[in-house]
From TrEMBL:
<dbReference type="Pfam" id="PF08281">
    <property type="entry name" value="Sigma70_r4_2"/>
</dbReference>
<feature type="domain" description="RNA polymerase sigma factor 70 region 4 type 2">
    <location>
        <begin position="102"/>
        <end position="154"/>
    </location>
</feature>
<protein>
    <submittedName>
        <fullName>RNA polymerase subunit sigma-24</fullName>
    </submittedName>
</protein>
<dbReference type="GO" id="GO:0016987">
    <property type="term" value="F:sigma factor activity"/>
</dbReference>
<dbReference type="InterPro" id="IPR039425">
    <property type="entry name" value="RNA_pol_sigma-70-like"/>
</dbReference>
<dbReference type="InterPro" id="IPR013324">
    <property type="entry name" value="RNA_pol_sigma_r3/r4-like"/>
</dbReference>
<comment type="similarity">
    <text>Belongs to the sigma-70 factor family. ECF subfamily.</text>
</comment>
<keyword id="KW-0804">Transcription</keyword>
<keyword id="KW-0731">Sigma factor</keyword>
<dbReference type="Pfam" id="PF04542">
    <property type="entry name" value="Sigma70_r2"/>
</dbReference>
<dbReference type="GO" id="GO:0003677">
    <property type="term" value="F:DNA binding"/>
</dbReference>
<keyword id="KW-0238">DNA-binding</keyword>
<dbReference type="InterPro" id="IPR036388">
    <property type="entry name" value="WH-like_DNA-bd_sf"/>
</dbReference>
<dbReference type="InterPro" id="IPR014325">
    <property type="entry name" value="RNA_pol_sigma-E_actinobac"/>
</dbReference>
<dbReference type="GO" id="GO:0006352">
    <property type="term" value="P:DNA-templated transcription initiation"/>
</dbReference>
<dbReference type="InterPro" id="IPR013325">
    <property type="entry name" value="RNA_pol_sigma_r2"/>
</dbReference>
<keyword id="KW-0805">Transcription regulation</keyword>
């Protein structure tokens, strides 16, 4: 990679790292695993930086890499065999709605990975059905189905009233 490309890559990743960690955390629910997902994703981004820079929407391109990295790890199952600590670290969130956020994150972790990815992209990143379909390389119908099933799973765990308070549609 040329020095100017490497500089642009470094600037981009440095600026977007908090957002990338957030999406990875929302997908997996574990800070350490989110760091691993982001590390793998930005490594892939580095390898394909020229192609990525040519994308119409670089942020969407990178977000797709993060989601696919998460889904690939779910398929291979390496995460279920690897445990570094026995206890979850203290939540680092702050704000008036921490308890609601923790309840939602816990429920979201119990939703199947593909449904979780669709829900995170649709409702937390406010992406359209078509954008999510493009990011996950599936049909719009599949996104709608996964959304419906994912919301049903959350409703089952949280109850309709709680989910409505959280903004589920």
């Amino acid at each position: 990679m040329r020095a100017s490309d490497e500089e642009h890559y470094t600037e981009y990743v440095t600026a977007r790292l908090p957002a990338l960690r957030r999406i990875a955390y929302l997908l997996c629910g574990d800070n350490h695993r989110a760091d691993d997902i982001v590390q793998n994703a930005i490594t892939r981004l580095y390898v394909h930086w020229r192609k990525a820079r040519a994308a119409d929407n670089l942020d969407a391109y990178v977000r797709t890499i993060v989601v696919r990295t998460f889904l690939n790890e779910q398929r291979t199952g390496w995460f279920s065999r690897t445990r570094v600590v026995d206890e979850m670290p203290e939540a680092s969130q702050s704000g008036p709605d921490v308890e609601t956020s923790q309840v939602l994150h816990a429920a979201l972790r119990r939703v199947p990975p593909k449904q979780r990815a669709v829900l995170v992209l649709r409702f937390l990143y406010d992406m359209s059905v078509a954008e999510v379909a493009g990011a996950l390389h599936c049909s719009a119908g599949n996104v709608k189905s996964q959304t419906s099933h994912g919301l049903a799973a959350l409703r089952k765990q949280l109850g309709d009233h709680t989910l409505n308070l959280l903004g589920g549609r």
